[in-house]
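User: quick one, fold this
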Amino acid sequence: MTRSLLSRAEVAERLSISPDAFRRRYVDLRADGFPAAVFGEATAGARWDPAAIDRWLDLKLPAAPIAVSPAVVVDLSNELAARARRLAEQGVRR
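Assistant:
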């Protein structure tokens, strides 16, 4: 199995910054938990594991909001109201 590693330019692209910005910010990124290069960290030929970068990004980026249609909200509200009525009828208190 061949694993692909990322160059500095490819890492920068994955982070949506320029290669120069990646070079300038690298020390701060590392201090913030950014993964070290798999090999050649101090050389122009440095390579990073894309899975490690994806894990770091997952920790840093907020979760994407879940789109919910108004019909689903109404259905859930109606279901909640129906459950509350059933509990009230059974004499269950909060």
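User: anything notable?
Assistant: The CA atoms of residues 37 and 94 lie 55 Å apart.
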